[in-house]
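Sample A.
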Amino acid sequence: MRRTPMTTLLALALPLALAAPAAAHEVADPTIVHNAHDGVVRLYGAGGPDTAFKKVAEVFTRETGIKVEVVGGPEPTWSKQAQADADILWGTAEEDVTALLETYKDFAWADVTPIYVRPAIIAVKKGNPKHIRGFEDLLKEGTKIVVTEGAGVANTSGTGTWEDVAGREGRLGDIARLRKNIVGFGKGSGPSYKIFVDQNADAWITWPDWPITHPDAAQIVKLSKSRTIWRDVNVVLAHDADSEAKQFLDFLTSSRGAAIMKTEGWVR
């Protein structure tokens, strides 16, 4: 075949396009100088644990007078600020914190500490109109399911969760049947929740904190023990963190902190 200039360009560009990786985390900004010494304990991480952390922080601040700011949400919304002043980062899974440490160089892998775990669950519409009782009900024809996937471009604890649940008993057919019922893949728990509501989905494979903090729209259906997977929330201190940050983490992991965290499904 005779090559035109355009076909030559396409032939050269295609391998480059295929080889270029999608960014699954933010890129460090070399112009930002990290300085956490400002007397405020600042935590950053993905949405989910932030609501429970804020409850703990409120009690801690009331008793000690030490100000704590908890910022949760999609990483692009807080990345620049965290690179400047974060005392603590949290990861919503081990794969999540591993990705974070690619960007935030003032935090070290050796300093990461898992502090709580929570189980995957099925969130269903309030009132559970489809009468979903467990995983097998998700395989029924016509069941509309939402799952969370980073898709190579978003850092989220939900990546692979639905596949892990479906594949727990080693049956390929379970994965295939569940996949046919998926009506939306959200690149993070927040986007997944929006799809769950907007598409009037029947179920969403997620974590307990979401239906707990959105009781008007969703409720929990537990997975059987043979289907349940667990992932942790972990924390890591900056090398120059305020001394009060360690004090806050001690309270967060104390028996009192654990009692508050448990209200949103986090256990030790």
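Sample B.
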Amino acid sequence: MAALDPFLKSLVQQGGSDLHMASGLQPVMRIHGEMVRVKYKELVHEELKQMLFELIDEAKKKVFEATGDLDFAYEIEGIARFRVNFFMQKRGIASVFRQIPSKVQTADELGLPPVCKELALLEKGLVLVTGPTGSGKSTTLAAIIDYANKNRKDHIITIEDPIEFVHQSQGCVVNHREVGPHTKSFSAALRAALREDPDIIMVGELRDLETISLALEAAATGHLVFGTLHTQSATKTVDRIINVFSAEEQAQIRTTLSEALKAVVAQTLFKRIDKPGRIPALEVLLCTPAVANLIREGKTFQLSTAIQTGRNIGMQSLDEAIMDLLKKNVVTPDDAYRKSIDKTKFKPFLKGQPSVLE
């Protein structure tokens, strides 16, 4: 057993999401969104480096020593998997371990809107799950892939850095590829995937022009492609995809995107007040003919209106989702106000005056 394993097991037992180990500080766990110090001595650089290096091979050590950064996955059998980042900072070495539960939560267990299951059954197109870091994108996407795995008979390829949720092949054949050990890059794996008879391709992050181009190409040529972006709303997601291309290409990309895009699920995460844990609020944009026309004509500023008028087919705005959680007494008024878009709707629920910075 590695010296760090007891800390990670404690994290899982307490329902925490992240373990922070940094030189010059005590270990800290993020539990239900709050940072909690562990009753342990301050960590010293050399001691912590020895503990961390116990988890990696010589090749990874060389990468870290050369760059000062390292991403990989670590698993404690029967407990959980962890997405790990090592980095250097002023006081010395540091690391963050993000828990990836061994069991993939279903769409029903997460309380996702019914339309998320429908997205898993699409024949082709691009589906994007977006949100800031730590908003639960990977968990939501894993639930959608899980539903496809159980209800389809197809070939699923996932491309991640590192592999997070592991799906056991059920109705589908599932192959996981990790950037680094299995492939040079997201774009290289995506290009190769088109020759590997896929029905569904899941790209862990659409992080550059080449990867976005290939994902669009795959979606436009008959594959169902899922991906994530670090954008905070459906409108910003569409703009981000278009703006990554040069001005000369954007008119063509708007047309391609309007035809390939099927849905954007943008989410943010809230601490629950009804019971321990966290819960997502989701904005859902479905690419109807009207939405496709807005994208094609460059009128993305009207997408929020399209979401409002599409409630009957499963669309919902982020504010609607937050308001639903607030009225069910699942989240606090302050939290709802702080993370909402149109804050005037939430101001009446506050007991005091909001901060001038919000």
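B remarks: The longest strand covers residues 261-271. Residues 5-101 form a domain with the Beta-Lactamase fold (CATH 3.30.450.90).
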